[in-house]
Give the backbone structure.
Amino acid sequence: MRRTTIVAVCLISGLVVLAIALFALARTEPRPAQSPDPETSSALREAVSPEGIMEHERRFQAIADDNSTNRAAGTPGYDASANYVAERLRKAGYRVTIQEFELPVFQETEPARLQLGGPDARDYTRGSDFAVMEYSGTGWVKAKITPVDAVGEDMGSSGCEADDFAGFAEGGVTLLRRGACTFEQKARNAEAAGASAAVIFDGRPSGTETLAATLGSPGARIPVIGTSFSVGDALLREAEDGANIHISARTISGTRTTSNVIAQMPGRLTENTVMVGAHLDSVAEGPGINDNGSGSATILEIAEEMSELDNRPRNQVRFAFWGAEELGLIGSTHYVDGLEAEELDAISAYLNFDMVGSPNHARFVYGSEEVVTVFEDYFAARNLDSAETLNLSGRSDHGPFEEEGIPTGGIFSGAGGTKSGAQAKDFGGEAGQSYDPCYHAACDDIGNVDREAVDELSDAAAHAVAVFAQRK
């Protein structure tokens, strides 16, 4: 609002100007998160129990046990998790929507190999010398290696133009230098030129040896390998002597269908909807019972108990169980991108719960000031220390909402970082140890979830939901 300076000539006109200024200030200040009726918060916290949460966690563990020990997006384990959540929510009386979306999928089905033939034959080490690029094609290749504009003045655009491959012998393995265009463009040009495989090496020495990268999307039919500068430089020298190279890459690349589970509890004010979310998928390496079975089980328990209490909130409450968070916030991004402007405007806050049961836990809070304040005040009232963390911006499913200017925030018990001495004093546990030693690992099972952390953080979660569901 444009400001106009007015010279007050009398008391009445001065009061008018003051009233206008205060109105303008009120329109620009964030809306405060008002305290709910104490009985609303206390009743929900009393109803939400660690026993109820652990019941859901045991079910997630059983699903993982029956499905290759994981619940990763796009797999039967994830689908079974989504079906379980949807069934529980429907029984609790919610309107449930299964929102499907396409998920890019890439998997190496066996360890790749990169070998140099000839008198200087050697095997390169997967992981430290080379890596298969994400969405690489599959195949076994033995052919002459041919550099394409990888030396000289134009080496920065190596393979970026179709003309770079003029004279390239069909069936050869092309050696390309990183730079000037995407890896996908280089790989597609190599494939179009008849290359049987592509090796792309880092353009200069760096602290990170392997060039581990992605082609961005499925579609490549030839193997595409990334190597360190030192390996690429050595292959350039070997190419001068007409050396052959052997490449083996066995991959699956394409798309699968996965889903978000969205459940809504009707409230009186649709323009003041509070969303409560947690990602339901695990990583492929393990069952993900803390990351993020703990967050999913917590909000599922809150949803069920809100319905059981039959205390219809002032505002609409919408629960979301996101797919493919571990692959880049794909599910929550898909949801937000599909909302119209008026639907975004109707969301007054988004509360996110990602990992609330870490065995060496902390009580971290994050997000917008009005959300952080609710959590901080709750913990302070119970003489529990909390700490605001700033390094989670955009790293979980609150990110897409945050980008739209929606107030967001949540609580977090810690992941793979190391607990400091000061944090051990504030939160208990062991200094110098990871908050969750099984983060993104096979051991993130039912035994990795700390019941005390679940009890403390689920009460804080229930309180925050009550606050935002009842605020005016």
Notes: Residues 1-32 have pLDDT under 50 and may be disordered. The domain at 32-105+256-470 is CATH 3.40.630.10 (Aminopeptidase).
